[in-house]
Every structure is written in structure tokens, then in C-alpha cells.
């Protein structure tokens, strides 16, 4: 190893990157959790006991807040041993910024009462709100909304109309923070906060209770004293228990993020296996005579194996230690960035779990040693007679590898076919067969890479083999199928995963767009952004104005509520014209008719009825998000299953009890021959006072609905970038070692007249051909896997297969660029070969 430090440097870098990513993922997860725990610890800090409402088990996923009543507050204050009592009123609202759009997006805007002492506020400018029409806002709200002191902000909750408020104060938090956890905030008077959160009811989100000083009352005594006065609608718990509960909730989310990142780290490690194995294979090939001489003077096969594995162990240990250190540093840096840019925490806590170091070392060392095992065994089989030969040993045949790959691919194709043709009975078995078959095909094609390299590399090389140097480069790339295959396979894996994911997500987007085009009869939609934390809504009175627009055939608004029906959470809708609404969405009745629903009638889709075991004429009981009273309904109609119309439908009389008391969307049908653009412009004018919603055509609405898929594709491509970097290192490493191995050959070529420029072009063509081969193979396999996934999910609505053409073109261009960059160092080294030294014999 000491004599060949340069040959192992790039291999070490691959192990460093893989180990570092694993360590960084684990450190980041633990550090973010600690940082979030610290933020959680600031909530109600100093309180002994907290009193909160008991949330129903099913109530719209806890979207609507229950409150602690004023009577309970009075009873708490009158309890012996109770000292200071503070109250908080808090929940999400919508606020409109200076650009007319909703502030916050995925990070919600939180409404609270200024008197809320759950977190410590620092007034930076202005004063506290004193009247119901005044608010103070967080510094982050100022940044995100473009509004500041002296401006007017429009805000509303799901149960209130839009109201304008004067901004009289701007506040922050200790440590120079502009927010807590990255949220934007607005502080109201207590009465106004109660109007927004609890529909004006004198209730509170939380009551913080301190034991009276000098009474000797502890937390346990305080809990025991409060229990009799709380009743069945509220509960008391120690602050420590509340904090532990909050930490447990956030730990679940951070754990998922950590596992997600760890998965991409393992992909990078898997790719590095090819690089390490290839490196040791090439290094051992270059030491052929040396190993044969060792065998000739008495070294046993086990000694050769131990020697090679010792090199791998040392290499893996050094690289893993460096990788663990880099990963810890990177995890700490990422934690600091996340804490500052996303959580807006005053500081971040670096937590280094022992598992981060152990996992990084175990994976790095284990992968390196296992990757070197096959080359080590192959080295031990070199006969001593090789020491007396000058001829180059012929490459090992790829017949066994090809046959094995062919068998695995065939088995995978058969298993995939069974799953896709639903030949195994149950959906779970079919889906499992499809997944297993796709995995086997992936492994089989990887093994077939050597066999595929000759025809494909030869074909790809024709693109630039018009010159003497180009022809040599193409032949160099194809003359050692095993080496080319292993190098290209590392790149193929990353490209396969990215292509398969992008193909599936693109097909999902195309299926949604295709569904709207083929099934939804309405030409225009009224809706707001799906990224808003609180669903955008609009004034239902505007529907009459929309229906009056010249060219509008019909227009139907839609209310939505996550309700409780017979003890299960269900999607419930209401509309003023059920028959028209169902028709515009392309739905149809299977049974019954209900053009106008009576107050005690309800309609459902077929699957919803099967889930609850009910049908036409049966009775169900429903409780809506904001309602305390249960209502009995008779089922009068059954709808065919339709992704856009699935759910339950009641009369609009109940929308006051919905979570969103105003419509969240509307469909507009333009009359035959009508001018869609003119109608769209007219409706847009009507919605001028409702800037958080807009009128959209099919294409715009589908694009808005699928925007999260675009984010997912981008995120996955970025995370798989590490595997791509490792693959690029593999290309560079293979070329450099190949140049070293072919030193005599290069010297001979230079001796008979090849120029430095021709040598550089030869190595560059070889590099680009190998990179392009890996990309083409990865794209092909990725498209195949993407298609299999789309077919397997066809019954769920993903019924359109679409190729991400632009992304694939980008991958091919990136492969050419990778080949060009990877060729720089090897080409320079090859062009500088000393001719006399290269062709001389000892």
C-alpha cells in the first residue's frame, strides 16, 4: 500500500463519502431532534401544571380545536394551592400578504393572544394590541408578508370572514430569533383570538398553572387538587409529561427523515462496492508477476488472500475514520443550517450518537473488505509459472456471469409478469410479486452488463470513432468487458433509481392531467394553492355573480369537511347543486337519485358504503368538525367510485358545522361555443376581492395539484447526487488505473508516432463511452422499472405511462460531461508517458 498510495486514493475517497453520508444522516437526525426538544422545552417553561381540553378520538384529525371553558378556568383559579394562572389561545389562520397571496404556505401562520406566555416575546417596535382591530406580528411575518408596522393585514380563520387589522407592534424572541420553529405569527387581543379560534366562545387552548408560593404545594399535590374541578372535558398534566409528549411527537417525524436520508447513504455505499472491487481487481492485475513470484518462493494461497484483505481492512479503516469525522462535521453544519434557516432556533445542539460512529465504521470497513474478497481469492489462484511470462494474461471469460445474469433476469421477468397480470389472487401478493420481479430484473441486468458492454459500447463509440484516436478509445472501452461493466454499473445504479422514480412520478402527474381532460366536464376551476396550511376559501355569495357571467352554462361550489360517520373519519362534501356538481366531475349515480338533498338525507360513493356495510335506505350518524350534535341521515343514493367524487354528500344547511364554513373550490362549465378565456377573465375579476383563490383551466389546475411531485423529483435527484459522485470517482479511478496498467502499450503507441493530443483524445473517448454506456443502460432499466411500477399501480389511478423526456435528455448530457471531466487526469497522465521508460524491459 505504501508503494501504491496514489492508486488507492480515489478508492479511499469513495469509502469516505459513503461513510460520511451515513454518519451525517444519523448525526443530523439526532441533532435536529435535540434542537427541537430544546425548542419544545421553551413552551410553557416554568409552569408546574398544564390544563388542556381532551380532544375527541375522531374529529377531522384534530383540525378543529376544543377549548378549556371559562368555567373551568374559574374553578382552577379558585383551587387551593394554585398561584399564578396564564392562558393561551392559539391555532392556524390565513393571512394575506402585500402580494395578495397567503402568507406561510407549508409553514402555517399561527394566531395567538398577546397575553399568551407559553413562549417569551420581545417587543421590538411599536406596542401591544389593545383593541380587537389591532395586532402585533412576529418579525418573520414581516419578512414573509412584506407588511410592517403601520400597515393593515387581512386575516381570517376557517369559521370567520376576512377582517382587516392594524399592525401596531413587531416582536421577536430571545437570542435574536424572528420566530419559533419557523412559523409566522400574529398576536391578537384575547377576545379576538377566541373569535378566530373558538368562534367567539370564551375558551382557551391551554391554561398554565403555577403552585402558590410558600404553600409547599408540589406538582403531584397540585394535580390531585385540580382533578376534581376539571370534569370530563379537560385534563391536567405535569409540564414534564407535556414536554415528553411533544418530544415524542417530533421524534417520530425526525426519525422518518433520518431513515429517508440513511437510505440514500446506503445507495451510495452500494455503488462504492463496484468501485472498490474494480480497484482491487485492476491493482491485482497490475501485480500479477509480483504475486506469482511470491507464490514461486513459497507463499500459500491463504497468505495471498490475507495480504489482500489486510490491505482492504487498512484502507477501509482509515477511510471510514476520516469519513466518520467528515460526517460528524457535516451533520453538525447541516444542523446549524436547518436550525437557523428552517427552525429559526437561536442555537443548535450537536448530538453525536455512538451509533453514528459505529455504523459509519462498520459499513465502511465491511464494504471495503467484502468488496476485496473476490479479487483476493482470484489473486490467490495465480500460478507461480506466471512469474516467468511476459505475455499479458487473457481476460477471464464472462460466460458464467452472463448465464447467471440471464437466469436471474428471466426469473425476475416471469415473477413481474405474474404480478402485473394479477395471477396470484390477492392485491398484496400481486404487488409483492411485481416488486420482487423488478428487483430481480435489476440485479440480472447488472450481472449482464459485461455481456451488454461489447455491442452497446461499440455502437455508442461509433459516434466519435471517426478518427484514429477515437477508434482506439472505443476499442479500449470494449476490450475488457468485466472492467467496463463494473465501472458502468456504478453509474447505472444511480441513473436507474433516478429514472425509475422520475418516470413513476411523471406518470402520476400525467395520469392526473389525463383524468381531468377525459372525465371532468368543467372547463374552469376556482381554487387556492394546495400548499396552504389552512384551506383557502371564498365568499359563497360570489357564485351568483359567476353564474351570471355571459357564457357560463353552470357553476357549482363545493364545501369540504373531515367528519365522523358511524365512528369513522370520512370525507364529507356539500354543494347547492349536487346533480350538477357530480356531473361536472364526471361522476354518476349507481343507485337512487338526489337532485336536491333534504336535511336528513345523505349520498355516498360505493366503496364508502362497503366500508361501513350500509346501502340505500340505511341510516348513518354523522358529527361534523365544528358540531357537537350528532345527526342521523338516511342514505338515498350511491355514486360510482370516482377519485374526484368519492365521499359523502349532505345538504348545505350543515356547512356552519364544517371545519371550513365557506366553499374551498368551485367548478365552472362554459357553454358550448363559449369563449373560455373571456369567461376566465370575467370570473377572475369577480374574485378580485378573494386573492387567495384564482380561476384556473385544466392544465393550470393539474399543475397546481401535482406541484408536490415536482418537489419530490428534485429532492430525490439531489439526494442521489452522492451516488452519482461516487460513480464518477469510479470512472476516474478505473481510467487512471487502466492508464497505469497500459503504460507499456501507451509507450509503444507514442513510439510509433501517436501524438500527445491523440493520446488525450483516445482516453477521453474511452471515458465518455463508458459514462454514456452506464447512463444509457441506467435509463433503459429505469424506464422499464418505472413502467412496471406504473402498471402495478394502474388500479389506483396511475393509468398513464409517460417518459420524463427532458430529464432523460439531461441525464445523457450529464453523462457526456461526466465522461469529459473524468478523462482529464487520466488523459494528462497518459499523454506524459515517458516513451523509453515505458517500452523498456528489465
General description of the model:
Helix content is 54%, strand content 15%. It is of the alpha+beta class. The protein has 5 domains: 1-46 and 239-393, no CATH class; 47-238, no CATH class; 402-447; 451-523 and 698-842, no CATH class; 537-691, no CATH class. The strands form 4 sheets. The protein has a 6-stranded mixed barrel with strand order 4-5-10-7-9-8. A 6-stranded mixed beta barrel has the order 15-16-21-18-20-19. The longest helix has 48 residues, at 239-286.
Helix content: 40-55%
Tell me the radius of gyration. 34 Å
Order the strands across the largest sheet as they lie in space: 4-5-10-7-9-8
Number of domains: 5
Please provide the count of β strands: 23
What percentage of amino acids are in beta strands?
15-25%
The biggest sheet, with number of strands, parallel, antiparallel or mixed sense and barrel status, is: 6 strands, mixed, barrel
Termini Cα gap: 23 Å
**Category from helices, strands and their pairing:** alpha+beta
What would you call the shape? Answer: globular
The mean pLDDT is: 83
The count of helical stretches stands at 26
Unreliable stretches, pLDDT < 50, 5 or more residues? 58-62
Organism: Glycomyces rhizosphaerae
Keywords: Cell membrane, Membrane, Transmembrane, Transmembrane helix
Main location: membrane
Subcellular location: Cell membrane
